[in-house]
Amino acid sequence: MKPRLSQNFLFDPSILRRIADAAGISSEDTVVEIGPGLGTLTKELLQRAAKVIAIELDVKLYNNLKGKIDSDRFEVFHADALKFPYKELGRFKVVSNIPYHITTPVIFRLLEEKGLKSMTLTIQKEVARRIAARPGGKDYGVLSLAVQYRGNPRIAFTIPRGAFRPVPKVDSACIHIDVYDRPAVNIEDGSEKQKLLFALIRGAFTQRRKTIENGIKKICPQNPAEALKNAGIDPKRRPETLSLEEFARLTEEVARF
What we know:
Blueprint: E1 9-10, H1 13-23, E2 30-34, H2 40-46, E3 51-56, H3 59-68, E4 74-78, E5 92-97, H4 103-111, E6 116-124, H5 125-132, H6 142-148, E7 151-159, E8 164-165, E9 172-179, H7 192-205, H8 212-215, H9 224-230, H10 244-254
Helix pairs in contact: 1-2, 7-10
């Protein structure tokens, strides 16, 4: 294992089964596993799925896995998960213990794929809490809204750091994200309004201790209070209290100026 890949391996069979259970895998599913490592989760997935496709960047782990698992329902690629051609797979689910340092890039890379049905990921507990957070809490922010725009996340269970080898410095969580066929709000993916939506979100949370009116002034320099009131939002509210639906309404109003 190369240290720069920062992989931490799970061996506990009960935890591996719980991850597969959380993924809701059926005998008809194609499952993608990113960073399969030593293949412990891979074997559990193969007991349930129609096909498992593993993507491993570390050449030693790739060669080891290629020689260890002999099944016509298994395929392993020596590849970078951020550059992999997922479009060729059709409809698929992702189940993975993702190396911590690429968690966020991998999630957003996968959310671009139309064939993705769901993700069940073992990630840092803190990041999982931010992804699954709802309005009003300290964990709620840009990451929460960006993921929830495209899917419905829930934390299935937490995993103590001692379950991994080598032992990481943080606890982990298994998070499941059901991916929507279309965005959660009526703002088209890839549109100019979508760009405006996330510009407003990022602007608001750069000053989360201030009011939403102050947070969006750079994006909406003309009449931010009026745009907020037209969207049914009190200009004095804090950004972390606004739902995705409210940010979408605000986007529609700002687009009129």
